[in-house]
Write a structure and sequence with these properties.
The protein is mostly helical. The chain has 5 helices and no strands.
């Protein structure tokens, strides 16, 4: 995308976020990292051990950033839109879990007006 857009709402950002996660393997790295984050949160609640809290960003960002820098070859949206990006991880997690992700990614490419180079 040549011109940078500024996003003022989460739902206007989310289609852009999906276009930055066009490669399925990148999405599944995010899914795995988000699963670990949820697991760490549950373990924190059950055990009260603080190290689970510290592990949450390592798990989530570790897998996500590997997916971006190594697989997708783009810069994570976290750097410019940290809260929208965090929320989008969980929405994308839900879309993967419920089998909606391929449709949502295609819709996002149409909304943003870029071609899916991983299709």
């Amino acid at each position: 995308m040549s011109e940078e857009r500024l996003y003022k709402t989460f739902w206007s950002f989310y289609p852009y976020y999906l276009t930055e996660h066009a490669r399925p393997i990148n999405r599944y790295f995010h899914f795995f990292g988000t699963s670990l984050v949820i697991g760490c949160f549950v373990a924190l609640l059950l055990t009260g051990q603080a190290w689970y809290f510290a592990a949450m960003p390592l798990c989530g960002y570790g897998f996500a950033w590997f997916g971006h820098f190594v697989l997708e070859k783009n810069r994570p949206a976290t750097f410019k839109y940290p809260l929208y990006s965090l929320g989008s991880d969980f929405v994308m997690f839900w879309h993967i879990l419920t089998g909606q992700i391929d449709k949502k990614v295609e819709e996002a490419h149409q909304i943003i007006g870029v071609q899916n180079k991983w299709k």
